[in-house]
Amino acid sequence: MDKAKEKVQRFRAREQRILDAALELLLEHGEEKVTVEQIAERVDIGKGTIYKHFISKTEIYMRLLMDYEKSLTERLKTALAAAEQGDITAPARAYFESRMADPSKDRLFQRLEEKIIALNLAPEMIAELHAIRNSNASALNRVFERRMEQGVLKKVPPYYYYSTYWALVQGAVELYHSKSFADVIEDREGLMEFIMDVGVHIGDISGRRHQEEGRPGGEATDSSFG
């Protein structure tokens, strides 16, 4: 490997360590208490080195938000391919699994985005984030439209389904952290899985869910998605 490529790889690796450290600190202490100095100390680099990668703490946070949304994009691509092969619930599962795998992280990112928007700190990056999210929503809406045409889902405006997915995740994440329900919920992970299952099958009028539950492995094999 030539020196130029090696230098680029080291730069990118250090940048990822900065992002990983920032996320760790945010989850540990909350966004109000994390400083650039703390991030630098966690990575074991100088504060000035941080600014070789990011112009501000806000840019670090925005990169975390965009990487999170892009990870959903990649999962949806894989899930859409699986749907074409007959696993028609794959896109819905990809959405819920991506956002509910780590409720603490999802809740943190919700707060960060709301605060950055409220303070108008990074309008161009927010616009880029929303463009990625809108693309993901459009991909899911096309799935909803196809499934409604096939008589699998109840016919409503497609955004009803995407909005319901969003609402279920928001509510689930808040419920996961709720102190009011702490004494009621004995199995938080089990509850999250149940909510996810409800979301994946919401609006299903085909009877497919009962067929899946009665089939060994529980997965659909019908290739009629495409």
From TrEMBL:
Annotated ranges, domain HTH tetR-type: 12-72
Spans annotated as Disordered: 206-226
Keywords recorded for this protein, A-Z: DNA-binding
Keyword Nucleotide-binding set for record: no
Keyword DNA-binding part of the UniProt annotation: yes
Pfam entry (one): TetR_N
PANTHER family: HTH-TYPE TRANSCRIPTIONAL REGULATOR RUTR (PTHR30055), TRANSCRIPTIONAL REGULATORY PROTEIN (PTHR30055:SF187)
Protein name: Transcriptional regulator, TetR family
Top-level taxon in the UniProt lineage: Bacteria
InterPro entries referenced in this protein's UniProt entry, alphabetically: Homeodomain-like_sf, HTH-type_TetR-like_transc_reg, HTH_TetR, Tet_transcr_reg_TetR-rel_C_sf
Biased composition (Basic and acidic residues): 206-216
Entry-linked SUPFAM superfamilies: Homeodomain-like, Tetracyclin repressor-like, C-terminal domain
Gene Ontology molecular function terms on file: DNA-binding transcription factor activity; transcription cis-regulatory region binding
Organism from which the protein derives: Microbulbifer marinus
Record feature DNA-binding region, as residue ranges: 35-54
